[in-house]
UniProtKB/TrEMBL annotation, chains A, B:
The gene is hisS. NCBIfam families: hisS (TIGR00442). One of its GO terms (cellular component) is cytoplasm. PANTHER family: HISTIDINE--TRNA LIGASE, MITOCHONDRIAL-RELATED, HISTIDYL-TRNA SYNTHETASE. Belongs to the class-II aminoacyl-tRNA synthetase family. It catalyses: tRNA(His) + L-histidine + ATP = L-histidyl-tRNA(His) + AMP + diphosphate + H(+). Its EC number is 6.1.1.21. The lineage of its organism: Archaea, Methanobacteriati, Methanobacteriota, Stenosarchaea group, Halobacteria. It is an enzyme of class 6 (ligase). Gene3D superfamilies: Anticodon-binding domain (3.40.50.800), Bira Bifunctional Protein, Domain 2 (3.30.930.10). SUPFAM superfamilies: Class II aaRS ABD-related, Class II aaRS and biotin synthetases. Residues 31-431 form the Aminoacyl-transfer RNA synthetases class-II family profile domain. This is Histidine--tRNA ligase.
Amino acid sequence: MYDRIKGFRDFYPPEMAARREVIDTVEDAAQRYGFREIGTPALEDAAMYADKSGEEILEELYSFEDKGGRDVALTPELTPTVARMVVARQQALSKPIKWVSTRPFWRYEQVQQGRFREFYQTNIDVFGSREPIADAEVLAVAADALDALGLTGEDFEFRVSHRDVLGALLDTFEADVDRRAAIRAVDKRAKVEEAAYIDMLVDAGLGIDQARQFDEVLVAGTDDLGAVREFATSETLDAALDNLEAVLDAAADLGVSEQCNLSLTTARGLDYYTGVVFECFDSTGEVSRAVFGGGRYDDLIESFGGPPTPAVGVAPGHATLGLLCQRAGVWPEESIATDYYVLQVGDTRPVAARIARDLRERGHVVETDLSDRGFGGQLDYADSINSETVVIVGEQDLANDEVTIKDMASGDQTQVPVEAFPGAHDRPTFDDFA
Amino acid sequence: MYDRIKGFRDFYPPEMAARREVIDTVEDAAQRYGFREIGTPALEDAAMYADKSGEEILEELYSFEDKGGRDVALTPELTPTVARMVVARQQALSKPIKWVSTRPFWRYEQVQQGRFREFYQTNIDVFGSREPIADAEVLAVAADALDALGLTGEDFEFRVSHRDVLGALLDTFEADVDRRAAIRAVDKRAKVEEAAYIDMLVDAGLGIDQARQFDEVLVAGTDDLGAVREFATSETLDAALDNLEAVLDAAADLGVSEQCNLSLTTARGLDYYTGVVFECFDSTGEVSRAVFGGGRYDDLIESFGGPPTPAVGVAPGHATLGLLCQRAGVWPEESIATDYYVLQVGDTRPVAARIARDLRERGHVVETDLSDRGFGGQLDYADSINSETVVIVGEQDLANDEVTIKDMASGDQTQVPVEAFPGAHDRPTFDDFA
């Protein structure tokens, strides 16, 4: 007997049915906006990750040397892969490029609630537009997906910020600040003690008073961007604030203003973000980590050797999204559904097979006996797979050219001429013949 | 600039759309028979493969030691994984267990036409039934899937054989035969010179005359199983022949007799098959390898530490299936489809956004401008994404409370009151307003 690997999961049919419903709902929201599905490899050149984030990132990945001596890694995220794909066909692809896909990713990290070593994300990205409407469309897709799942503004909020607001604010301090380190500190703000957070800002180069001042303006600016404009001005800060306001305006036009809240203390951990960033949070705070996040990464394609290509995206992760749905009571029922069970008694297989075939041709889920069971055993099995209707094809009935239609919810049944079933009915039930 | 890894593929939207259509069609065929989707991990304990096939198998896999010192392998096939999952929940799962899933697998092997290092399969398996109807149902699902793809009996055939017919026949020779080696020789029969094939049988323990005799009876038995019964009798041979005939009879009841041809020279390469085996071949011979195959593997679950659990399955591979579809001219068109483009001119975004939202709520694919393009640029873009209908929301029209509906195929257009669009129409087109 073998065990599955820690942090990896098996999904049996009832749970998988619920997961599939959620995945389909999220993908469908993106597809309605014209995002097109792509297919991507599970392995990439390990240098693709090490070059950006340093060799030490490989310790957190499933990286190894393949039989041909290549250093490869199981993809921990999709963004570098789609950047590579955009660069590879940069001439042929018309802009904007709008892509969606759902697949597993892998990281060798600590397993905890909602965090696994194999985890599934739906990635939704726009390449080739730097307009605020592109950021807003990504927010709108995410909001539509959550809405279609049955979640409301009571359940979640998008906290929206802007990397350049943080960066330009930091530049207004007379200090030699490591901007990346300071932004990472902001990203950790809600996860660590205040003193530790201030220490991180000081480590990034701010004086202790500057760190406190910086945090105060982030908090004040979350209520009102005017507070930031009053605190300092610079060309980049003004441009960033204007861009952030334009994105929120465009989001309002797209009908998602209620879900979006300004939050300058939101930073996102990844280094490659450049403009608007946002995170989805559980409004009740029961799912304490960000459910998912996204943002603008205008420099990544160029850093992969492509032409300057602005980009913005979001990537709902299905583990935390599932926790949010469960908390809000909208996780789909974990069960399997069957339209018909065709119950065969005696030497009636050709007729039973014909009926099953006719029902399947109409698109229904139809099971028949594979286990040589008797009447009672088959009825129990039909019940166990939640059959709505059972069609009983028995020798005695057939002698009268009839079959029996049984409604499993009520237990009601009736005989119908075998030639009349399914007849002209698209989805015949007991009621059609009673 | 990074390259993708050899033997791995990127799928851009037009090709992915065609692939998705084929995958959905195959899965849908299985789901109509009540096969339920499962989700499975990409990595497994490497011992799961090495224990069955020897350490040398790991050279053909993407196997490595993870950061925690585990010997792991990227899954080269699904069967060991589903066997592990059946064993893990053997008490809770009601029989028969009918599972389907589509996902990538990985093997470190030579790349050639229709063979990649990352390849996609739809696995369809039944556990817990040893009845011939279960084998027949698996054949019927495969036949229904190919039929739904537009393939006919002119395009493909299933060559059906039985492992125990081969085994029991070998037992009738007075020789010390390595059965696995002999069966592997039969599997190679069509791929090597006749002399090499006979040599392989001799290496497996048959005398040279016995090898020729064995092959003659396989060929004669392919026309008529009676020839096998005449050549030799034994309890296991008779039982195997009876089982093979019962499966073909059941397949006929399920309406797939035309697609199934007896072929005792079909053996399947994998060691774990125990009963009926079959391979799908291109009837024209243009796709020279088997398109896919399947069969019965009654001993695998027990060898994984579970209770005796008969099993039968099939696994269409999407690379060779794609070649067959292309050869037969039924590969789906590689293009993207868009229902509506909402073209916005001037300061009309709130109205354009409302119209786009209403159309998306009706389930349609709707794009709008993300690139601040003018009228002509937007119309070109709408054309490039194959929009069926363009809704033009212009300032002048709006001053008259109208929008323009343009049919992209004909170029015809008409004005309609903005409040009437989309109105009560589920899928409004130019024709609804002309």
